Amino acid sequence: MDGTVLGKDYADGEIIIRQGEAGDSMYVIQAGSVEVIEESEGGEVLLAVLEQGDFFGEMAIFEREVRSATVRARGDTRVLTVDRKTLMRRIQRDPSLALNILETMSRRIRLLDQELARVKELLAAATS
Amino acid sequence: MRGILNRQRSVAEKLAPRTGRSEAAAELTDGSRVAVIGGGPSGSFFTYFLYRMAEVVGLDLAVDIFEPRHFTHCGPAGCNHCGGIISESLVQLLATEGINLPPTVVQRGIDSYVLHMDVGSVRIETPGHEKRIAAVFRGNGPRDVEHVGWESFDRFLQGLAQDRGARIVRRAVTGFEWDDGRPLLKHADGSDEIYDLVAVAVGVNSNFLRLLGADSVGYRPPKTGATFICEFQLGRENIQQYLGTSMHVFQLGLPRLEFAALIPKGNVVTLCLLGQGIDVELVQRFLDAPEVRRCFPPEMGRPDHVCNCAPMINVRGAARPYADRFVVIGDSGVTRLYKDGIGAAYRTAKAAAVTAVFQGISAKDFEKHFWPVCRRIERDNAIGKFIFAFNDQLRKKRFSRRAILRMVSREQSEDGMTRHMSGVLWDLFTGSAPYREVFLNSLHPGFLGGLLWNAARSLTTRGVGPIAEENLHGRDRTG
Question: Is 70 exceeded by the pLDDT of residue B478?
């Protein structure tokens, strides 16, 4: 690995976080991209593809719940880990630190709303 | 484009239903002019966060950053004279803020520290084996060194501030006065400008601080200590082989030398020395120490530096770094003792920016919302001074140096072992945690018991034991 980079390298297909596992950190993509996958008995559902600069795993930081999805590298990817302890200690002192996370989560909720509306339309069309 | 119809509408008025503030106090309004004197990290962070917070509340500001230097110049002319380490915690916080350091800025990602003492060397690794500390050039690198597409950290931050809308003014500010309660900046050509708010971010080595007489703003500059910084050109391959991705810290028991570190960056190595009365003789004694020579190619002899400086550092914070429409940030105000100066610049700059946008720009506003951040850093520094004094006593005794080496080596060698000493030293060397936390961790029964047990073993046995021996040559495994 080039010495002038930060974070940890993941190879194509390598799991970064696994659904159902406990987590105490979030991740910021430094290079490459990742796919967010919902795993169920019926198989895998691709929820999102995240690119350089995006973050993931933040829900486990705020909720202290297990990971809600699996995230794996798409091609060679480099990811920086942000510890819950470091982040929460600073947010307690400086709540505006959470602004960037809140804005991103807000955008994601907006996208989810659009997705939900589309699914409901499809369901309504199928049942009518 | 600045609003005209709502030009005089302040943030307090916009937030009045929620905050109850509606008095016509000193506040930023649409079209307010802000001067930032100094375009280093604290000035750029302040500007960046001032615009960021102003954007949140729909406030239109105009910020001028006065910085005559170009951080694209090599050598001292374009440098802010600093070791250039971005701490583990700051790297994470910046990433959370959406500021990711590009590979052109990161001269080397650091994932471990090697502690060198006369009794041996040991490598302290991050639990996740992840590179989360950045070695950077503050300017555009040392003089007379081959440049291979790197970018100055200070220039990178300045670019972020410019992207937000700041104007970089390549002029020195030569005078500071008040005009009807507003700060007035003077320039060498006789011109002057009035601003609504002035943020001083010039750094503790700037002559500008002398212009800020206590009579006008009540500010008194920080107490300073001496450092020596120089750079050696080793080449990438040698650096990878001899220093790797580790920062190398030395506790050699040399008189007057409190702290020494070698920081690998691209094709050069930066040496930082902290102490009292650092002179040529002390630097040469340090470079001649066998523990230091092992970090350089044997055929090199005593290395010649390509660039050097002896900047002052802030060892006790400034008094009253704020007044009406005036705030001092970064190390010309309050900073962390010895470590994480850029992290302190981020914290004080952001606190000042958040205060200015959401609370106001009067002395009372800064006292209530900005000064507590500075005071917390100063209180933590007081604990830091105690820790460094204790560490100073430990490193003077050979048996205690052996005890530290033995304890760290055992912790690093055995999986699952709680890393009491490694954790304390890691936080102390990297500046990633407050000194208060380092102190509390050093009171843990596991730490104290381990230290006492290893001290007793060091007094009764020769060497540092089989486990420590495996870790003595940490540098060999850093490549």
Answer: no
Q: Please state the ipTM of this predicted complex.
A: 0.93
**Chain A closest-CA separation from residue B92 CA (Å):** 5
Chain B CB contacts of A93 under 8 Å are 373, 376
> In chain A, whose CA is at the least distance from the CA of B104?
A4
CA-based nearest residue in chain B for residue A25: B92
CB atoms B89 and A8 under 8 Å = no
Give the fold, CATH level 3, of A1-83: Jelly Rolls (2.60.120)
Q: What is the per-residue pLDDT across B299-357, written as a single tens digit (0 to 9) for each? A: 887 777 778 888 889 999 999 999 999 999 999 999 999 989 999 999 999 999 999 99
The answer to whether the CB of B251 falls within 8 A of the CB of B116 is yes
Answer yes or no: is pLDDT of B225 > 60. Answer: yes
pLDDT at B14: 52
Partners of residue A4 in chain B, C-beta under 8 Å: 103-104, 106-109, 266
Instruction: Please state whether beta strands B167-169 and B62-66 pair in parallel, antiparallel, or not at all (unpaired).
Output: parallel
B374 touches chain A (CB under 8 A): no
Give the closest-approach CA distance of B170 to chain A in angstroms.
Answer: 30
What chain B holds in terms of domains, given with CATH numbers, is 11-71+154-222+317-382 (3.50.50.60), 80-148+224-313 (3.30.9.30), 389-477 (no CATH)
Chain A touched by B128 (CB under 8 Å): yes
- Residues of chain A in Cβ contact (below 8 Å) with chain B: 2-8, 28, 30, 52-53, 55, 80-83, 86-87, 90, 93-94, 96-97, 99-101
Percent of chain B topping pLDDT 70: 86
Please write the tens of the pLDDT for every residue from B47-85.
999 999 999 999 999 999 999 987 776 666 666 667 789
Domain ranges of chain A: 1-83, 94-128
Find, among B181, B186, B208, B211, the residue nearest to B196 by Cα.
B181
Interface test with B, best of A1, A2, A6 (most B CBs within 10 A): A6
